[in-house]
Amino acid sequence: MKITIWGCRGSIPSPGPEKIIFGGNTSCLQVTHKKTSLIFDGGSGIQRLGAGLDPEIKEVNILLTHLHLDHIMGLGYFQPFYDPDFTVNIYGPSGSSRKFGHAVETLFFPTVFSCTLK
Known about the structure:
Number of helices: 3
Oligomer: single chain
Strand order of the largest sheet: 1-2-3-4-5
Order of helices and strands: EEEHEHEH
Radius of gyration: 14 Å
C-alpha cells in the first residue's frame, strides 16, 4: 500500500517556491494498492494526481469528506474525467438541503466551470 499526499493546504491553494517541501495545494490524498486507487477529497492537488496516475489504473474511487470548496475545487481538472476508457466513482455526503450529486454537478455548469481539458 502506498499513500501520497497531493494537497494538505487550507482554504485556498498557495503555490510558490517556499512551498516545495510542504506544498501549496488543497486537500487531496491517494491510497494505492496494486491497481486500485482510493482518493480522499478533490482539492487542487487532484490535478497533479490525475496527470501522474499510473497508466495501468483505469478506475478510481473518490471519497469527498465534505463539500467545502477547498475539498472539491480541483475535480474539474482531474484528467481521468475526460478519458472515456476510465471509470471515476465519486462518493460523499449530501448537503443540508441538496443531494450530493446535485452539488457535484453544479461544479461543472458552464457558468461556474468554463474550462475544457483536451
